[in-house]
Amino acid sequence: MSAVLKAEGLGVHTGDLALVQDVTLTVGRGERVGLIGESGSGKSLTALALMGLLPEGLHATGSVRLDGSPADLVGADEDELAPLRGKRMSMVFQEPMTALNPTMRIGDQVAEGMLLHRAHRRRAAARSAAVELLDDVGLPSPAEAARAYPHQLSGGQRQRVVAAIALANDPDLLICDEPTTALDVTVQALVLDLITRGVAARDAALLFITHDLGVVATVCDRVLVMYGGRIVEAGEVAQVFTRPRHRYTSGLLAASDLARTDDGRLLTIPGSVPQAGAFPAGCVFRNRCAAATSACETLPSWVGPDPEHGHACVHPVEVPA
Amino acid sequence: MILRLLSRLAVLVASLAVSTMVVFGFMVVLPGSPARVALGVNASDASVAQLEQEFGLDRPKGVQYLDWVGGLLRFDLGRSYVSRAEIAPQIADRLQVTLWLVVTSTVLALVIAVPLGVLMAVRHRRASGVLLSALSQVGVAVPAFLAGVLLVALFSVRLGWLPANGWTPPVEDPAMFLEQLVLPVLSLGLVQGAVLARYVRSAVLDVMREDYIRTARAKGLRPMRALVRHGLRNAAIPVVTVLGLQLATLLVGAVVIERVFVIPGLGSGLLDAVANRDLILVQDIVMLLVTAVLIVNFVVDLLYLVIDPRLRSVR
Ligand SMILES: Nc1ncnc2c1ncn2[C@@H]1O[C@H](COP(=O)(O)OP(=O)(O)OP(=O)(O)O)[C@@H](O)[C@H]1O
Ligand code: SF4
Ligand SMILES: [Mg+2]
Which residues form the ABC transporter domain (chain A) (predicted)? Predict the structure, then answer.
C-alpha cells in the first residue's frame, strides 16, 4: 500500500512556543486514520499544518509529503501549495455555520473549486456538475439548494455542502476536522456515512479528527492518540481501544462511553488540559498521570515496530497475556 | 424582497412627513414673527403687517403648514421674504454645486480608500502596511479645511497651477469648472478617503479571519484571490454604513470648504439665509438637507439588501 500522505517530525510553533511537536504519521490509499485527543491537544493545528493553512503567526517545521508531489509541503510557497489544495488534498471543517461564504450561492461555491482546477472549463458545465455533486452528498432538491444561500440551509445540509466542496475534484487525501461535532446526533450519522462513502468511492486516504471515540471505532482502521501536541500512542483501532498501553489513552477510554467503572459511574481523567506551552517537560501527561515516576521526567522514547504502531510511555498499562 | 423594499420605502415617506412637521414646528416656536425677523426690530407694525399679509403669514399655522408642504410636493418652495425672489431655482443651483462637490469627493475617497484599506489589511504585519496605516492616521487627523488651506498654499499660491477659489458652472466653461473643482474636491476627498480607508482596513482584517476565507483557501484559491472573491463583498457591509454617514455629514459639512473656496453651495446658502434673517429660505434649505440625508439612508438600506442575501429573506 502506497502512502498518500507522509508527515515526519511535524511541528507547529509560535515564536519559541511549540504547540505541536514531532508528529509522524502516514495515511495510505483507501486507509482511514483517526486522530483523537482532548480539546487543546493540537489536532486542528496538525491538520492545518498538513494543508499549509496555519493562521498568521504560526509556522510549521518537519516535513510533509504528498504522494506524487516531489516537494516538501512544509516551507513550500503558495505556487506549489495552492494547486494541491482542493485538488489532491482537501479538508472539511468543524463549524458548518461559518465555513461557507454567506453572500455567495451554494452552487457557485461548489463549482468554484472545479473551475479553479480545470475539472470543468465552462461555468455552465461546472454548475451542473455542482448540482450533481450536491445530489451525491444527499441534499434534497439539489438544484434548488444550488441556488440557495448558506443561511437557507440547516447545519447538517451545510456540512454536506462543505463535504461536496472537499470531494469536488476527487482528492487523494481528505482531512476532516471534527466534521460532526457541531451537528445533532441524528444528523451526525448521516454526514459520517456520506464522508465514508465519498472517500471509499474515490479510494482516497482519510485523516479523521474527533474526540468522539465511538466515531473513531465506526469510521477508522487505525488511530493516533494526541496529547500536549504529541502523538502518544498509535495502532489499529481494535488494538488501541481494547488494549491501550499509554496511560493517557487508557484514561481517555475510561472517560468515554466505551468503558465504565464497575458501579457504572462515568470516569474522567483527573485534572485538565494545560494551556499551550504549560505542559510538563518529559512525558506531557506526567502532571495528570497516576503512574508517573521520576523516570517520566525525561521524554519517553517510542516503543513499537514503527511510528504507526506503538506508544511513548515509560510505565505502559500491562497487557493481559 | 419586494416586501422589504416597500417597507423601506414606507419608512422613507414616513420620515419625510415627520421631518416636515419638525422643521416647520421649529420655525413656529422661534420667537417673533418671520416678517418681523426679516424686517428687523426697528420696522413699523404696519410694514410688518403688510409683509405678513403679502406672504399669508397671518393665516392659521395649520394652513401655512399645508400650503408649504403642498408647495414642496410641486417643487414650489415659495418666495424669499427679503428679496422676494423665487426660492426653488436659487436652491436648485446651489444643490447642483454641492452635489458636484460631495459626489466627486466621495468617488475620490472610495477610489483611494478601497485599494489602500485592502493593502493596509493584507500587509498589516509588514513594515509597508504599518507605514501606510500611520500615513492614513495623519490624513484622519487633518481637518478638511486645513487640507484646503494647505493645498491652496501649495498649488495656487506657490506653484500657480490651479485657481485658489471660485466656481463656474460646467455648462458655461467646462475647463474652468474642472480647474476650480480640483482643490476643493481634493481637500474633501483625501481626508474622507483616509477615514474610510481605516474602516476598509478593519473590515478586511475581520473578514480575513473568517472561516469561509479558510474554506476558499482549502479549495485552492490563493490568499489575495480568496479575499477578493469571498471577502470584499462581506467587508462592504460595515463600509457602506460608514460611507452613508460620511455622505450625510458631507452634505452639511461641505460648508466649511465652500467658504474656503468661495463656492456657492447649499451650506453657504444656509449661512447667507441665516445672516439675511430669511426664515423661509432657512426652512427650505434645512428641509432639503434633511431630505438628502434620508435619501442617503434609504439608499444605504437598499445596498444592504443587494450585498447581504441574509437580509432579503423574511424570517
Ligand atoms: N493561533 C494560535 N496562536 C497561539 N496558540 C494557538 C493558536 N491556535 C491554537 N493555539 C493553541 O494551540 C493548542 C492546540 O490547539 P488546537 O486547535 O490544535 O487544538 P484541538 O486539539 O484541535 O482542540 P479542539 O478539540 O478544541 O478543536 C491550544 O492550546 C490552542 O490554545
Ligand atoms: S510516561 Fe509516565 S507520566 Fe507519561 S503516561 Fe506513562 S507513566 Fe504516565
Ligand atoms: Mg480543533
Answer: 5-253
Is A101 within 8 Å of B307 when comparing Cβ atoms?
no
**What does CATH list as the number for A3-220?**
3.40.50.300
Are both B54 and B133 inside the same structural domain?
no
C-alpha distances in Å from residue A284, one per residue of A48, A60, A247, A278, B211: 22, 20, 11, 9, 31
The interface predicted TM-score of the complex, written ipTM, equals: 0.90
Strands A89-92 and A173-177: parallel
**Quick check: B262 and B167 in contact, CB under 8 A?**
yes
B162-214 pLDDT, tens digit per residue, is 888 888 888 888 888 888 888 899 989 988 999 999 999 999 999 999 999 99
pLDDT tens profile A237-290:
999 999 999 999 999 998 875 555 555 555 678 888 888 888 999 999 999 999
Instruction: Answer whether A253's CB lies under 8 Å from A213's CB.
Output: yes
Query: Are A257 and A251 in contact, with CB atoms under 8 Å apart?
Result: no
* Partners of residue B238 in chain A, C-beta under 8 Å: none
Looking at the partner chain, which of A83, A98, A166 has a beta carbon nearest the beta carbon of B211?
Answer: A98
Cross-chain residue pair B214–A102, CB shorter than 8 Å: no
Give the domain-ending residue among B86, B120, B144: B86
pLDDT in tens, B251-309: 877 888 888 888 898 888 888 888 888 888 888 999 999 999 999 999 999 999 899 99
Q: What ranges do the domains of chain A cover?
A: 3-220, 246-311
Residues B131, B267, single domain; the answer is yes
Ligand nearest to the CA of A229: 1
Ligand with minimal distance to A37 CA: 1
CA separation for the pair B235, B118 (Å, rounded): 10
- Closest CB to B219: pick one of A56, A116, A152: A116
**Would you say the CB of residue A43 lies under 6 angstroms from ligand 1?**
yes
Same domain, B28 and B174: no
For residue B191, give its domain range.
88-311
Q: Is A42 a pocket residue for ligand 1 (Cβ < 6 Å)? A: yes
**Model pTM score:** 0.85
